[in-house]
């Protein structure tokens, strides 16, 4: 599964597009007081950002589970239940034709 960068995912979730840049002031016009930019996130955006941070900290593959399965296969002790495999394939929709 390909990973989507968090910034792109947030843009897709909230329909954010690139902002417009303010125009330049005409020559000779005095500069006003400097203002700081402020970004205010909605509670939904904060929750989505926190979820993305947590997902980013998770490994893509559970290495301990993979290692255990490799060891069982190498030892010849891995015996998947064919009915369980078939049931999960059917439930996942992996066999559905498009």
Could you please describe the fold and organization of this structure?
The protein has 98 residues and is an all-alpha fold. The chain has a domain at 44-98. It has four helices and no strands. The protein is elongated and about 80 Å long.
Helical coverage, percent range: 40-55%
Q: First CA to last CA: what distance?
A: 20 Å
Order of helices and strands: HHHH
List the total number of helices: 4
Overall mean pLDDT score? Answer: 82
Structural category: mainly alpha
Radius of gyration: 25 Å
The percent range for strand residues is under 5%
Instruction: Please give the largest β-sheet.
Output: none
- The number of E-state strands comes to 0
Give the low-pLDDT segments.
Answer: none
Task: Set down the secondary structure blueprint.
Elements lengths: L5 H9 L28 H15 L5 H13 L6 H11 L6
Briefly characterize the structure.
The chain has a domain at 44-98. It has four helices and no strands. It has helices spanning 6-14, 43-57, 63-75, 82-92.
Which labels suit this protein?
49% helix, 4 helices, mainly alpha
């Amino acid at each position: 599964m390909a990973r989507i960068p968090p910034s792109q995912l947030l843009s897709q979730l909230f329909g954010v597009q690139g902002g417009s840049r303010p125009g330049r002031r005409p020559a000779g016009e005095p500069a006003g007081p400097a203002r700081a930019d402020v970004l205010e996130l909605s509670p939904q955006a904060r929750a989505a950002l926190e979820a993305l941070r947590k997902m980013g900290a998770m490994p893509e593959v559970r290495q301990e589970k993979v290692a255990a399965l490799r060891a069982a296969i190498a030892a010849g002790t891995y015996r998947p239940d064919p009915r369980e495999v078939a049931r999960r394939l059917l439930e996942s929709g992996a066999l559905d034709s498009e």
